[in-house]
Amino acid sequence: MLTRYMAGVVAARTGDEMSGPALLVAGLAATGSPLLGASLLAGLTVSAAVGGPLLGVLLDRARRPGRLLACCLLGYAAGLLLVAAGVGRVPGTALVALAVVTGLAGPALTGGWTGQLPLVSGPDRGRLARATALDAMTYNVAGLAGPAAVGVVAAVAGGTAAVLVSVALLLTALPAAWTLPTRTPRHWPTPAHPTSDLPAGNRPVGERRRFGRVASPVRAAGAVGREMAAGVRAVLGNRVLGRATAGSMVSCAGAGMFVVSAPVLGLELTGDSSRGTLLLAVTAAAGLAANGLLAWRGGPRRRNTAPAWDRTLAWSTALVGAGMALAATAGTALVGAYWIAVVAAGLVGMGEGPQLTALFAVRQREAPAGLRSQVFTTGASLKITSFAVGSALAGPLSTHSAAAALLTGAALQAVAVCVLLRRRG
Q1: DSSP 3-state assignment of 296?
Q2: N vs C: which end of the chain shows fewer Cβ within 10 Å?
């Protein structure tokens, strides 16, 4: 079961990582401007602020969460197909609107899978810890394989073909999602999410007898709303968690600028936008290597004390900013400009890998046990939405030059470091 899960999650997340860069390249090829591609990427990610928390609650309440996960995968794939088919034929505003609707299912491709790990691994804590470690690695693997695949496919067959490969990977993950285990009473919500708030049809058998009747749709919707609000309060009400979330949001907006700028930078330096997409694969590879080193060393020293992971989050964000600033200067080099961009992309990855690990560690440490899943989905949704804002701003800036967007992204990383280092008042 775990092997099938991992195969499905790698396919789904690789398809997800391909979708954004593929739309960027497709839009750039169709219009000659990064504006459409950046707008599509922003539309695909901005709706995560709504989709993430809602999907988290629905997946936690579903008796067969794999069926809902499979439907989300199918909807996301169908939306990508429609967007790809419309590029160059349909007005950009309509395509962006379609991308926004498609993006509602986006969080299912990331946190939606992770939330099902206890169903797959069983009650043994050691097995769950191993499954969690493997699941975390799939983000890096997908981040490495996705942009690299876009670069190769786009160079051979164009941006639209890269979107089609992304869709094929998403569809490959459908069987693994559909066959995820059924939720049993052992996996039902904790006391922090009382089962009495669930519709009777979604309660374990014993709970159905206890409460007797099916809750009305209004009452069920109210319960979902209360659970979503509880997750948001858990993030905003904790000073340390709120600071880490705010800093990561600002940093992620800058990361969106780097992703949009990479194909444009490649076009400026080599005349081939797919070479710029390969820079994203360099970033993912460096992130994977940095996380591997961090895991081998056992994390930061005194990792069980509160400041350790917080400091890691701050310095890794600073490293991301340094890499983006270096990438902005690549165009001014007399020789080896593209290789300077490669080094810069590596620096960005060396920061992004530990940055994500540190953020997860802070969330695990600060989140209330009964709201941990919602803290993760809500935090992830806020980050994805920030990424969308950064991507949207990067479009007009990249039209002027990739360096303008990269310098703006580096400045955002500096702001994020200031937020993360802000003292507790």
Answers
A1: helix
A2: C
Q: Give the N- to C-terminal CA distance of the chain in Å, as an integer.
A: 48
Nearest CA-CA partner of 386 in 362, 415, 358, 363:
415
Contact 110, 13 (CB under 8 A): yes
Could you tell me the pTM of the whole model?
0.70
Distance from CA of residue 370 to its chain's centroid?
A: 23
Q: Which residues contact 348 (CB under 8 A, 6 or more apart)?
A: 258, 283, 286, 319, 320, 323, 324, 327
Helices H / strands E in the chain, number of each:
18, 0
Main-chain dihedrals φ then ψ at residue 205, nearest 5 degrees? -55, -45
Residue among 86, 102, 103 nearest 94 (CA):
86
Cα separations (Å) of 172 from 77, 131, 239? 11, 21, 41
If we measure between CA atoms, which residue out of 84, 236, 72 comes closest to residue 170? 72
Model confidence pLDDT, tens digit, residues 151-166: 788 888 888 899 999 9
Domains within the chain, CATH numbers bracketed = 1-181 (1.20.1250.20), 223-420 (1.20.1250.20)
CA 394 – CA 187 distance, rounded (Å)? 43
Instruction: Measure the CA–CA gap between 409 and 254, rounded to whole angstroms.
Output: 4
Long-range contacts of 180-189 (CB under 8 A, 24+ apart): 180/5, 180/64, 180/65, 180/66, 180/69, 180/116, 180/119, 180/120, 181/1, 181/66, 181/119, 181/120, 182/63, 182/64, 183/62, 183/63, 183/64, 183/65, 183/119, 186/123, 187/118, 187/119, 189/60, 189/61
Report in angstroms the alpha-carbon separations of 213 from 196, 208, 394.
11, 7, 53
CB 363 within 8 A of CB 231: no
331-353 burial code (b ≥16 CB/10 A, e <16): beeeeebbebbbbbbbbbbbbbb
Mean pLDDT of all residues in 92-106: 90
Q: What average pLDDT score do residues 17-42 get?
A: 83
**239-270 vs 402-421: helix crossing angle, rounded to 10:** 160
Q: H or E segment at 281?
A: helix 273-296
Write out the two tokens for 158.
Answer: 């164009």
CA–CA separation, 70 and 175 (whole Å) = 8
Q: How many Cβ atoms are within 10 Å of 219's Cβ, its own excluded?
A: 11
Tokens 């200031």 correspond to what residue?
A: 418
Question: Which residue type, as a one-letter code, is found at position 58?
Answer: L
Neighbours of 178 (CB within 10 A): 16
CA pair distance 257, 304, nearest whole angstrom: 34
Closest to 379 in 3D by CA, of 313, 300, 287, 284: 313
